[in-house]
Amino acid sequence: MQTKPHFAFFDEGSKKEIRRATLKAVAIPGYQVPFASREMPIARGWGTGGLQLTLSLIGKKDVLKVIDQGADESVNAVSIKKLVQYTTGVALTDHTAEANIIQSRHRIPEHPLREDQILVLQVPNPEPLRKVDAREYMTKRMHAEDDYSGAWLILFEQIMKYGKMTTGAAHPVYVNGRYVMAPSPIPRFDNPKMYYSDALILLGAGREKKIYAVPPYTNVESLAFEDYPFSKESFKGKQCKLCGAEEVFLDEIINQETGDRTYQCNDTSYCMERLNSAQEKEVESSYA
Questions:
Q1: What separation in angstroms does the CA of 143 have from each of 26, 30, 127, 147?
Q2: Which of 122, 109, 101, 118 is nearest to 43 (CA)?
Q3: Active-site option among 13, 30, 49, 177
Q4: Does 279 share its domain with 217?
Q5: 207 and 71 assigned to the same domain
Q6: What residues form DSSP beta bridges with 261?
Q7: Domain for residue 3, yes or no?
Q8: Tens of pLDDT along 38-49?
Q9: Which residue is catalytic, options 49, 163, 240, 244?
């Protein structure tokens, strides 16, 4: 006899505990709230923090989208979607505009988010000061004392060594003028999307047992110096080989035989929507 799992996998007590931590995180933007991270049917480090947030918030009428580094079809994204749908029966979608809960690993979708949407980001390393001091009680003290000199020093050393800031992903941000936060390992390209975002952004680290948040319309600024301002990845003069999109985050694809370099939208759903829209316009023009 197979027992039926709880709705959204967790018992109600577990959901309430995660929701309480989430509410505190929303009330104190950028602050890492500890929570009792549960055992999950997936390994820690594969999105358990984000998954716990999603399962604690999702309702029967919600529509879920899960992406992994921009792709809806990756193994991790598909596995998480199957688990959530099996325990909830909610509708799934690949279209950002149709979802009201979007769980993502390492990307913020290209499609602008709305007020009625929640973005859940999976976070492997939530502590931006871990490279400064490995001791948890010391990093907590630094946050409490608003002492972020170590984070500034790391960026300064990069400039002295390479002539620029070299953080590829998880470039630290100042949230609401108070806490320095690790915005999960999203590329620098996505950092500006957090600035006064319409949607609620929740970040969960299951292995590190931390939840933190960026409420809608919150000031989020990437750490930078006046003479060395923050800059995101540049794709000037490049476009997606499939849909022709520009000013989006692109994947560089190298042909192993010829060595030629082409570029493609990292956000596969955004790319497909543009392709379908272009085909529809072609059909309409042909009938006209």
A1: 17, 10, 10, 6
A2: 122
A3: 30
A4: no
A5: yes
A6: 254
A7: no
A8: 999 888 888 999
A9: 240
pLDDT, tens digit, 9 for 90 and up, residues 139-164: 999 999 999 999 999 999 999 999 99
CATH of residue 26 = 3.40.50.11310
pLDDT in tens, 113-144: 999 999 999 999 999 999 999 999 999 999 99
Is 2 a domain residue?
A: no
Q: Which of 202, 222, 242 is the C-terminal boundary of a domain?
A: 222
Distance CA 44, CA 205 (A): 9
4, part of any domain: no
Domain identity same for 155 and 248? no
Number of domains in the chain: 2
Beta strands across the sheet bearing 200-205: 33-34, 210-214, 200-205, 118-122, 101-105, 63-68, 91-92
CA angle 237–241–243, rounded 5-degree value: 100
Does the active-site annotation cover 30?
A: yes
Question: Residue 277 — very low, low, confident or very high, per pLDDT cuts 50/70/90?
Answer: confident
167 & 246 share domain? no
Q: In this structure, is the dihedral angle defined by the CA atoms of residues 252, 184, 112 and 247, taken in order, positive or negative?
A: negative
Question: Is 45 annotated in the active site?
Answer: no
Write down the catalytic residue from 45, 163, 243, 244: 243
Quick check: is 150 catalytic?
no
Question: Which domain range does residue 187 map to?
Answer: 12-222
Work out the mean pLDDT of the chain and round it to a whole number: 93
**Is the same domain home to 122 and 247?**
no
Whether 97 is in a domain gets the answer yes
| Residue 285 pLDDT exceeds 70 | no
Question: Can you list the alpha helix ranges (DSSP code H) found in the chain?
Answer: 12-27, 48-57, 75-88, 136-144, 149-162, 268-287
The distance of Cα 75 from the centroid of its chain, to the nearest Å, equals 17
Run of H or E residues at 210: strand 210-214
* Residues 255 and 174 both lie in one domain: no
